[in-house]
């Protein structure tokens, strides 16, 4: 009721950030939060035994459960200031690996969950073909696998017809473990010259690198480069990218790395050398990955703080031009938007949709601080828990 | 109104934990939250430049400001489920180092702040004598220094007369940098056979170890042992204890280490090898230290997660008998209570005061989880932000 042709709103005493962009999520994994921290039988304390626990859940979900889990997980994201998510989606078929009568049923479940909440979504459709070099998929991986690369691409093409201002489709060859060289080359040719984002798990575990060397005589990024997936600048996002060789840092210049620090700690993966990546012209993004935690502010803080532990120094990501807080806040907004193929996500600018995360300056975290100091306290010592409002497309959603 | 001689209370759908014990705090440092993450002049990215920023604040505070800052910081602690705090207190005198007319004025400010909030307090009175081997205190350290060890002990004796069920007094030779060998020996003799807790910063930075070797030909813990401060089991708490040699782990058996993971990351200190300490019979406690963050649940989670990053494995603190979640929850409760000299703090048991932190099972963090799984989710992936009630001595305080 402002007498003007636009509404006038009182936002309160808040720090206004662009809506946070969660560039790497497996929403259904929220179902195993708190359920993987006790010793089981064999090999209890590795990434690979965690993966077995995760597979057990992945196998039992029906389409309604995928929808409900994803919606609830997305709701938790939205409440934490996330307004745009990249869902790295690999549940495609029924537990025996047979397509549903509606072949996009599970992808549609994810899309519906995002629409229900108003979240912007980049659905990263995963291609998964094998258990490793020369190995057919394990029974518990059959849900992830399409009958052929052509079937996969036909699904992607069909999903792309539904793209709109809330939805983008990208592709995600799962990892060098799960996809062989000919398929990677074919995917590179298929997407060449388009603006379709490509995401891939890269060098999360040392064993992945060893197996790739044994099969191809290349690092995972060396293989990806040889297949042509790095030909277009800015279209490739390497998720994790922890165990890199010198040449891998060069290969990534102009592309993105999505770090997921809390999952990478939980699973014993290791520390992303984000300082070296940032200095070497690699864009940074952040993801909640397994969704054991959903807190992109904490992920950003951990990106810097893990480097401080490793380097035994302070201000690792920052330089004279840009403090560490700005680097990690950029990763949680603009960097994620770029990785997910949005030109406006992660920006606050006249003429683009108002997606925003508002942080309460009266929260105990920020009490007594303003401006730059509040910003630094949020990103270096804070949490998404101080987010009091999420706005998407000019509408207050939380 | 239960018709019984005790009240009947409905606590709601909550996970009940013993009140959290924050075993290492410098409350006034809350004043520099968010203010040390940009590059200044010389040596911008080290512990030592951070310390200069902290000293600048320490120098300007008057007694009323010490009280207000401490009270506000303690209030933030109480809201996060902390019911008992160890304040490692080194602001004793006026900025020129002259005792106030009331010589305990700043210690009383801390005690009053805790009483105002109902928090249990162990006031760890710090002895500080020098800037390093053979160096008098720097001007900005004069506030911390007593005229002599006798003056210090007279202050401690006087403060001990005020001990009661809410207040304990301990002593804290600041570090091997700040206290020479004769004073450490004298302090050991003074406290021998008593139950007075002794806390000391130990091996936080590599430089401290190097200087100690140069001065004494010993590691910091080697010196502490040689001075007799480790003679009584369970009375000595080493704060940080990051850069340890093999013999140092042995020296600590039966004593405590207080880890402060978020501060230790912020300051580039390094990772506490808590798995090795725990396996070697060293008790663990947790502290919020610089109070840039106040979240003991996050500190507990980081204690385990930093080890996962370092070891590139999962379930580092746990074993078949006790999962990692229980080890870190124990550090945040019972372990802290032991370090601060309380027999009941950190316990829930009939016959001891009801100090408790209640975590809301309907919080997004814990939604869908109960019992053991909620406990594991809280301590491995959670935050004190899910704390909805703090009880001290049977009274609901938040």
Could you outline the blueprint of secondary structure elements for this entry?
The structure is a homodimer of 398-residue chains.
Chain A lengths: L13 E5 L1 E6 L21 H14 L2 H17 L2 E8 L15 H13 L2 E8 L21 H12 L6 E7 L7 H11 L6 E5 L3 H11 L3 H7 L9 E5 L5 H7 L3 E4 L1 H6 L7 H6 L3 E4 L9 H16 L12 H16 L16 E5 L10 H11 L5 E6 L2 E2 L2
Parallel strand pairs in A: 2-3, 3-4, 4-5, 6-7, 7-8, 8-9
Antiparallel strand pairs in A: 1-10, 10-11, 11-12
Question: How is this structure best summarized?
Answer:
The structure is a homodimer of 398-residue chains. Chain A has 398 residues and is of the alpha/beta class.
Keywords:
12 strands, four-stranded antiparallel β-sheet, 37% helix, 398 residues, homodimer, four-stranded parallel β-sheet, globular, alpha/beta
Can you describe this structure?
The structure is a homodimer of 398-residue chains. Chain A is of the alpha/beta class. Helices cover 37% and strands 16% of the residues of chain A. Chain A has helices at residues 47-60, 63-79, 105-117, 149-160, 181-191, 206-216, 220-226, 246-252, 261-266, 274-279, 296-311, 324-339, 371-381; strands at 14-18, 20-25, 82-89, 120-127, 167-173, 198-202, 236-240, 256-259, 283-286, 356-360, 387-392, 395-396. Chain A has a four-stranded antiparallel β-sheet, covered by helices on one side. A four-stranded parallel β-sheet of chain A has the order 2-3-4-5. In chain A, helix 11 (296-311) packs across helix 12. The longest helix of chain A is centred in the first third of the chain and has 17 residues, at 63-79. Chain A starts with 13 loop residues before the first strand and ends with a strand. The model of chain A has no long low-confidence stretch (mean pLDDT 95). Chains A and B meet through helix 1, helix 2, helix 9, helix 11 and helix 13 of A and helix 1, helix 2, helix 9, helix 11 and helix 13 of B.
């Amino acid at each position: 009721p402002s007498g003007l042709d636009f509404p006038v709103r009182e936002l309160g005493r808040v720090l206004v950030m662009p809506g946070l962009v969660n560039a790497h999520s497996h929403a259904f994994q929220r179902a195993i939060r708190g359920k993987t921290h006790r010793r089981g039988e064999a090999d209890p304390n590795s990434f690979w035994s965690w993966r077995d626990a995760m597979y057990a859940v992945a196998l039992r979900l029906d389409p309604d459960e995928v929808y409900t889990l994803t919606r609830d997980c997305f709701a938790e994201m939205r409440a934490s200031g996330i307004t745009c998510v990249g869902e790295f989606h690999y549940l495609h078929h029924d537990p025996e690996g047979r397509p549903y009568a509606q072949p996009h049923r599970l992808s549609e479940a994810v899309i519906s969950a995002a629409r229900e909440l108003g979240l912007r979504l980049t659905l990263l459709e995963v291609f998964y073909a094998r258990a490793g070099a020369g190995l057919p998929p394990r029974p518990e991986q059959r849900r992830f696998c399409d009958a052929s690369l052509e079937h996969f691409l036909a699904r992607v093409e069909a999903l792309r017809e539904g793209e709109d201002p809330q939805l983008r489709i990208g592709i995600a060859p799962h990892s060098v473990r799960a996809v062989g060289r000919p398929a990677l080359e074919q995917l590179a040719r298929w997407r060449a010259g388009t603006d379709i984002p490509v995401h891939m798990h890269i060098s999360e575990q040392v064993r992945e690198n060893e197996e790739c060397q044994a099969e191809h005589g290349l690092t995972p990024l060396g293989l990806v480069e040889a297949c042509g997936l790095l030909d277009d600048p800015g279209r490739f996002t390497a998720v994790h990218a922890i165990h890199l060789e010198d040449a891998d840092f060069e290969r990534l210049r102009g592309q993105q790395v999505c770090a997921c620090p809390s999952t990478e700690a939980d699973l014993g993966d290791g520390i992303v050398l984000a300082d070296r990546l940032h200095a070497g012209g690699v864009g940074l993004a952040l993801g909640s990955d397994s969704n054991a935690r959903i807190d992109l502010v904490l992920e950003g803080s951990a990106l810097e703080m893990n480097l401080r532990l490793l380097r035994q120094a302070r201000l690792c990501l920052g330089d004279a031009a840009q403090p560490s807080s700005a680097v990690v806040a950029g990763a949680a907004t603009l960097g994620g938007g770029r990785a997910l193929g949005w030109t406006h996500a992660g920006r606050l600018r006249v003429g683009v949709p108002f997606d925003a995360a508002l942080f309460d300056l009266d929260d105990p975290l920020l009490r007594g601080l303003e401006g730059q100091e509040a910003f630094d306290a949020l990103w270096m010592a804070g949490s998404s828990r101080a987010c009091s409002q999420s706005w998407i497309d000019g509408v207050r959603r939380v």
